[in-house]
Amino acid sequence: MANQMPADRGQTSQTKARPHRRKGLGPMAKKEARLAFQMLLPTFAIVLAIVLIPLLANFWISFKPVKLADLRPPAPVVSERVRGDMSVAGAAFTIEYRLRGSSQSRPIKDIELVDTLPAGVTLLALDPACTANGNQILCTVELLEPGERKTLVLNAVGDDAFSAEPVSPRVSKPEISGFAENVLTSNEFTLDNFKRIFNATEFWNVLWVTMAYTIFGTIGALLFGMFAAQLLNTAFVGRPILRGLFLFPYVAPVIAVAFTWVVLLDPFSGTFNAILVRMNVTEAGINFFGQRMAEFNFFGLVVPFPLALSSVIAFEIWRYFPLSFLFILARMQSISTDMYEAAEVDGATPMQQFWHISLPQLMGILSTLFLLRFIWTFNKFDDIFLLTGGAAGTRTLTVDVYEQAFAVSNLGAGAAVAVVIFIALLLFAFFFFRFMNREES
Amino acid sequence: MRIGLGFLLAIFTGALWGMIALVLVGIALTMVTGLPGTPVVFSGIVAGAASGATISFRPAAQRSRGLAIAAFFITMLALLASALMMPFSLPLSEAPFVQGLAIALFGLSVTGGTWVCLRGIEPGANSRYKRETLLVRVFKGVGFIFFTSIVVLPFYVMVMTSLKSQQQLLLNPMDLSINLSQGPEALFRSYVELFTQFNFGRFLLVSTVVSMLTVVITLAFSIPGAYAVSRLRFPGRDLLSRSVLLIYMVPAIVLVIPLYAVFSQLGLRNSLTGLLIIYPATTVPVALYMLQGYFKGLPPELEEAGLMDGLNRIGVIFKITLPLALPALASVSLYVFMIAWNEFLFAFMFLDDPAIFTLSRGVVSLNSSEVPRQHLMAGAVVATIPIMVIFLWFERFLVQGLTAGSVKG
User: Model ipTM?
Assistant: First the structure.
């Protein structure tokens, strides 16, 4: 991004300098614009379908009483039975269709049942719901209440040929269809989801955890990145190797590194705990990802300490410091060495050079990084989910979406949390744009 | 010779190095050999202080090679004497060769580190400039060790754990030594089992295919888009080129519920087609952003010449723009490949059928109490190695991609 910013800037000033824009487009320009839109169409389409519409769909779902199970729409179920002896010529037998709905909570409307009788069977009496056309039977049921069972009875008799070699009417399976209102598309709305999430005391705790995770994770990653960049700013023999090495945590798949941390910090078989015990730092292994609070004895002063949350933040810093490192290093190497040489001549000490030359030059990239990383840490789901599953006081808003929607199976409540996230993001985006505008001017 | 604050600083510097070096050497010793040793930190401090004192005994300009050798031996002697001949809480008769090596390594690193830090630092009074130089050197040294350790340790543990058995792990979690005498079959048992019993060959194939197709689809969508944004004039262009990154700020978890609902109803949920719709949708905006930045940097005169010579737009893109933009295409492809390969959330939420698991999803399925830990770590290694090979091979392109893609986390 840093590389691209100057190009963007140039572009904006060019566009502003163009006078003919206000006058409407000429035929050539129209053709060019049409071509441009055609080329952008696939991108628009996929982004609209997979990102923007789902984003808005969250608002819709958050006002719906929809559970995970409701995604499978209710359907009518039929079982067919035959009573009586079909092998006696001229003896009547009955065919029964037993209907019920698959859902215990929602009705099914306009049910249609179609079946074909075997050849040689004559219908004697029909259920009032049914009509026959030759061997075709069509039955319609207007409404099936939740839990209601309905039986349709048909009387029939077979001819001699049929009785000699009876074919059960069950051989041809009845086809059944019905219409049930989908909760997702119905007119049923509710505020329960929002009441539910805002009333839970846990929710405010979730907000606090999210803020702590985001702020400390972002600042930590920035500071570590800056420290690492300072180390590699001067040229030495192993620098390319170390630079590649420092990027490992960021490049490796999240599942691999998250599970490695879980194994590494395991209280019983984890290497890190074994090292701590061996160095006499603790007596027994520490359950880094499972213990909500730890008490920290600081010269007799007992300080409570959110252990699992801190471990998760430590992971976040470890995994994302490489990104800040990469950017800050790139920026540092573009600072002209003249300034440092002049400072050396003037007798500035290393710390003074850092505070008065490097840091002011880095402020731009640091604030951009802070903003971007802040948003991305706020959005982070995978890491916490894999490390703790949101247990032990590490549940952030994003993990809460998963918990509500899929662990408690309440899609509506999950969407309500997603809406909260979305609104927070709108705020961030607002700051982001204001900040970008200021940067450019 | 005046002895003053500089001498004291030298002792502190040495003591710090002594402490760090003894702890690290001790841990390394335990990990490599499996011996239950505990480094005596106090002795490390004493030995380091002795080293600092020896070096700082002479003014900066008069430190000879002989002094370095003397400091080296004094350091080791101080270590042995203050720890009563047991610097790792082990009698020296146990694995004497390795312990001797460890002690020599300790002496060398402490003397070397202290020597470098104290270069130009006088035993007496020093200027503020020199004092800060010393501080910066110490910080840098500690930083190098710290960052290298925190990066290397998890990956080292990942690889080593995958090569051990559950009993060995529980018996001594610090023992990461490898018993080479058991032969390659026993050593790589968890890998063999992953590929024979856990179907990892298939996961590897699925991940490769999905990632590659994601790259192809992303490029097919983003190249025309990026070209339009960078070269063609149309109303709303500036807004578009800036807001495209905003799409990138939308968290996947917010999209999961609606997509889950809709894809379930369409029957796309438990299918690779579903993933191949979602992955490109999330990567196209950033690919477009990266490519348009690069396209803008290409000289438009070349393309205009192409148009003059009778090529149409598509011809210009294929024959002029794309060949010139190959490095950018490589960066974008590698970056998108990495995102698709590492993607976890959608694979986890959408895939139920083990026949179409991606590697991420496959490794998650190993995370149960019934599957031993070394299988989980072996799975992690299998998922990591391809992306690491690509990273190391194409580091320049991928780093460019990371910097241009900037924010994806």
Answer: 0.91
